[in-house]
Design brief:
about 40 residues
């Protein structure tokens, strides 16, 4: 969680920041919908 907060504050750079934010958004969606989203690859 601390890493996500750092990402949101901009303390991480580029791709790492995007990855943390993406993971956090996916986690929130999973928690709110109660279902696991299908990963797009």
């Amino acid at each position: 969680m601390a890493a996500t907060l750092k990402a949101i504050r901009g303390e991480l750079e580029g791709d790492a920041r995007e990855a943390y934010i993406g993971s956090f958004i996916q986690l929130v969606r999973t928690a709110t919908t109660g279902s696991t989203p299908v990963a797009n690859s």
